[in-house]
Amino acid sequence: MYDIREWRHAFKLDPDKEISDEALEEICESGTDAIIVGGTDGVTLEKVLDLMARVRRYTVPCALEVSNMEAITPGFDFYFIPTVLNSRDPKWITGLHHEAVKEFGEIMNWEEILVEGYCILNEDCKAATLTDANTKLAKDDIVGYAMMAEKMFNLPIFYLEYSGKYGDKDIVKSVKQTLESTTLFYGGGIRSAEQAEEMAFLADVIVVGNVIYEDLKTALKTVTAVKKINRK
Ligand SMILES: CC(C)=CCC/C(C)=C/CC/C(C)=C/CC/C(C)=C/CC/C(C)=C/CC/C(C)=C/CC/C(C)=C/COP(=O)(O)OP(=O)(O)O
Ligand SMILES: O=P(O)(O)OC[C@@H](O)CO
Ligand SMILES: [Mg+2]
């Protein structure tokens, strides 16, 4: 499925973490809508190339979520570019992006590039520390970022990122109610089929990451849990 507006579930694989061929096969053949390759640190070109080649044995769509310029390579179906809307440092909002587009803009295939408006809400996660994200936000602050993502910047994706921590359902619900055309990704702390199902009622796309490496069987169960619920 190459239209993110039809996705319900994605697995996020971290190039900096090891995964066996058997586990990778189960993940890629699970029925998930996509594999997102991304992580905050330790993402090198070598590790990205290795993981991409292994995922490419399967037909599942595969996106590279760019976290640094050095690890970008051709061969993915999509390139997801995060912009951290609640960062206190402009480098993570438009700074690195400006440098990249100045240098490579003429040769970039914009058809395969999707910008993700991130709002990072777990103050203890690596991405929050790296980007100096202001995580002390009230619901209306977060809803404001969602509205900016859609109405001001026309972004295809708004990503509520709780990486490592299960999020606040009330916030996810309010953000979903605010968005009309932008796709809402929810990611963070999903460690059971029940949690996946709960968030699938609220968000468009549920992203499952760390549990892949901690409890593969449970990770696989999140796919069926999410797929049985229609997107609103
Ligand atoms: C050759 C070719 C095909 C070219 C393609 C052209 C192309 C795509 C060019 C890129 C253009 C561009 C605009 C690039 C932007 C450059 C850039 C570096 C932007 C900054 C991105 C950013 C804000 C990164 C910050 C960190 C972040 C939000 C990462 C996202 C992933 C994430 C949150 C992972 C979760 O954390 P994790 O590491 O899993 O944590 P744990 O290990 O604790 O679980
Ligand atoms: O690793 P977890 O906590 O599942 O989060 C998934 C994803 O949102 C991380 O970027
Ligand atoms: Mg992770």
From TrEMBL:
Residues binding sn-glycerol 1-phosphate, per UniProt: 12, 159-164, 189, 209-210
Residues noted as binding Mg(2+) in the record, renumbered to the chain: 14, 40
Magnesium in keyword set: yes
Its biological purpose: Prenyltransferase that catalyzes in vivo the transfer of the heptaprenyl moiety of heptaprenyl pyrophosphate (HepPP; 35 carbon atoms) to the C3 hydroxyl of sn-glycerol-1-phosphate (G1P), producing heptaprenylglyceryl phosphate (HepGP). This reaction is an ether-bond-formation step in the biosynthesis of archaea-type G1P-based membrane lipids found in Bacillales.
Subunit text: Homodimer.
NCBIfam families named among the record's database cross-references: GGGP-family (TIGR01768), PRK04169.1-1 (NF003197), PRK04169.1-3 (NF003199)
Protein name: Heptaprenylglyceryl phosphate synthase
